[in-house]
Amino acid sequence: MAYYPPVSPYAAGFAGKCPRCGQGELFNGYLKVRPQCPSCGLDYTKADAGDGPAVFVIFIVGFAAVGLAFIARFVFFAPIGIAFLIAAAFAVLVILGLLRPIKATLIALQYRHKAEEGRLEG
What we know:
By secondary structure, the protein is mostly helical. It has one domain (9-112). The chain has 3 helices and no strands. It has helices spanning 9-15, 52-74, 80-112. Helix 1 packs across helix 3. It is elongated and about 65 Å long. The relative contact order is 0.18.
C-alpha cells in the first residue's frame, strides 16, 4: 500500500481534488463525482454527500439574498421587482459558485473521518 501524505480536506475540497492524494480531479462534470481518482485510484463510489451541500449553501445564500433585497428596497429605494431580481440573480450566481466546492469538501471530510453508512449490530 502506497503512502500518501495528509491532505487538508478543506484544501482538497475547495480545489475539487482527491481527498487522499490531493492531485486527481474529484468531479467528471459540474457535480458528477468520478468513479475513482485518476491519480491514485481511490474508489469514489462510496462517496455520497447527499443533500448536505445544497442545504448548507441555500441556507447561507438565502440569508444573504434576503438581506440584499432588503438593502436594495429600503436603502436604495429600488422598486420591489428590481430588488427581487437583484437578490435572485445574486442567489443563483453564488449558489452555483459554492455548490461544487462545498460538495467536494463534505466528501473530503467523509474520507478523512472514515464516515460510512450506519449499521445495526444484531
